[in-house]
Write a structure and sequence with these properties.
Blueprint (H helix, E strand, L loop, with lengths): L1 H14 L13 E2 L27 E6 L21 E2 L2 H4 L3 E7 L2 E7 L6 H7 L3 E4 L1 H8 L11 E6 L34 E4 L4 E4 L2 E4 L6 E5 L2 E5 L7 E3 L2 E3 L4 E3 L3 E4 L6 E4 L4 E3 L7 E2 L2 E2 L2 E3 L2
Parallel strand pairs: 1-18, 2-6, 3-5, 10-13, 16-21
Antiparallel strand pairs: 2-7, 4-5, 4-7, 8-9, 10-11, 11-12, 14-15, 16-17, 17-18, 19-20
Length: 293
């Protein structure tokens, strides 16, 4: 039987040079956070978090708590993934209340834990606020977020009596009339692009290999620009090699491994888990395609 499988792998590899002879299970990770060489930058971690509040209120979000990650919080209660909570008590105090906004959506949460470590913020290149998966799902449609996902939010301290719940986001700044001599200068060019392949916005300089035609594109000042490859990209999301299917597949593809029967989702840089068979979604959102054995 072993020789039959070996022959099968040789046959598959002969069809495409992109597919290695291993299944999705090998090297797969839990959660949405991308595991790349960037993880090597997480050095100098000493259990100390920054208390500096950014003047523009902009943070990258990460998530903690929920199934498999229940943990006690330093200000009381448990991070169970169902509440409106966040870390950053070192910035806003125990039981401080902050408004978190992104994509025209908003939530008021309570700061009930310490962190994250300053080394994570150095790796992300900007301040981080660690939040409940419930917050991430409201703002971005994703229950999990890691520092390398670069999901940016705006955080504002609010009154201690503010309700812990979704809230009304601040109204966008009106577009100035260019014929009005008193109008302020034009706002800066957009710095994010919407990726249908990934199902979310990405930052300027990020490259994505399109699910529709396999071509590479880079986000440049809010617009997609064609590229020959991912060389020189700030971050790149390509295809994942599937030995089960015998081909490479785009991000958000969900595959049931032929080796173990476990489901995995391609996040553009590797295979991640878990995948929900009930609603066909994975760590980075709804499955773009579904491949069962």
């Amino acid at each position: 039987m072993k020789s039959i499988y070996t022959s099968l792998f040789i046959t598959l590899l002969g069809c495409t040079t992109e597919v290695p002879a291993y299944y999705e299970d090998q090297g797969a990770t839990e959660g949405a956070s991308i595991v790349t060489d960037d993880s090597l930058r997480l050095s100098g971690c000493h259990g100390t978090a920054s208390s500096a509040v950014p003047a523009d209120g902009r943070y990258t979000i990460t998530t903690f708590g929920g199934p498999g990650d229940h943990q006690a919080m330093s200000c009381g209660g448990y991070a169970d993934g169902t509440g409106w909570y966040a870390a950053s008590r070192q910035r806003y105090g125990c039981a401080g209340r902050v408004k978190i906004e992104a994509n025209g959506k908003c939530a008021v949460v309570e700061t009930k834990d310490y962190g994250p470590d300053a080394c994570v913020e150095r790796a992300a290149g900007m301040p981080i606020i660690d939040v409940s998966p419930k917050v991430s799902r409201l703002l971005f449609g994703e229950a999990g977020a890691g520092w390398s996902d670069h999901l940016v939010v705006t955080v504002t301290a609010v009154d201690a009596g503010a309700a812990l719940d979704p809230c009304v986001a601040d109204a966008p700044t009106p577009t100035p009339d260019p014929t009005d001599p008193t109008a302020p200068p034009d706002p800066a060019s957009p710095t994010t692009c919407t990726s249908a392949t990934l199902g979310r916005d990405v930052a300027d300089g990020v490259c994505v290999r399109s699910a529709s035609d396999g071509a590479w594109f880079a986000c440049d000042a809010g617009a997609w620009v064609a590229r020959a490859s991912d060389a020189g990209c700030a971050e790149a999301y390509g295809y994942c090699a599937s030995a089960t299917l015998g081909e490479s597949v785009p991000a958000r593809t969900c595959v049931q491994s032929a080796a173990t029967g476990t489901w995995y989702q391609c996040n553009g840089q590797g295979w991640v888990a878990p995948v929900s068979t009930a609603d066909r979604s994975g760590p980075i959102g709804d499955c773009a395609s579904w491949h069962a054995n």
